Model the fold of this input.
Amino acid sequence: MIPENLEFRILKKIRLLNLFNVSKKILYGRHKINIPIVGGLGYPNLYLKPNWLYLLVNELFVSDGLTFVDVGANIGQTLLSVKTAEKQINYIGFEPAVSCCYYLKELIRANDFQNCHIYNFALSNKLEQIFLERNNDADPTASIVEELRPQFFSLKDAVISLNLDVLALDASINCVKIDIEGAELEALKGMEKLIRKNRPFIVCEILDSFSDEVFEFTQKRASEVCSFLKALDYSIIQIVQDETTERIISFHQIDTINLIQWNKKSLQLNDYIFFSSTKTEMIVDILAKMSSRAT
Done:
């Protein structure tokens, strides 16, 4: 049996993939999606399959015209989940890496996705120049929090951060996804008005500690995220996903987030859903249905 994407695997192995601008169609759920490979950017998208977030989006968005805000858009993993959903969902993505923003626009163009807006900013609680640390052009572990992984990154770029509330988005925002490697606290503080107004579901990755040396720092920030959202009458659910299928296999309503030192199991345990306490019954029913499908 010929391995999947053999031609791209070979080019990548011999370090020639970054010399090509090509596109390949993949099957993503029931949808045929064009995946552009631009100077090597986009290669991981060839292997994307619908995961728990794709299923959750289809459950949370019950009508057309609502908006999904993607904080930390990277190369479009979440964009594909949103734009292949059963409903017509508006998409707003924030991504500080210039190379990723370029690729996101190519992905949107290649698939003629409508109602998509990409902002080349980091989200924080104020407008300022900060630094994005990374190891490559589309590094999914890139962070604006220097203390998160000391001496881990080899590259540093000056970028602009802003607070989301200054944009005064005129949209009915139903869900916010945050995957920004340790910078969740400032991003949430910078969208407090939006949260109070729209009461969106917030799907957020909060990483376990990189090392013993930064454990206290990491745990303090996770606790502050919980305190901030609980003060807005939000509740917390931790989800557990299957390592292979990336589907939800269980979930737990918790009072606060207690981190551990990072290990391989952290990949399945570091995703949380924050939600208005008035929507508890709704989200529990949805997650129960999703987890039952995964077993």
Notes: Residues 1-48 form one domain. The CA atoms of residues 219 and 258 lie 7 Å apart. The chain has two domains: 1-48, 49-120+168-294. The first strand starts at residue 21 and ends at 28.
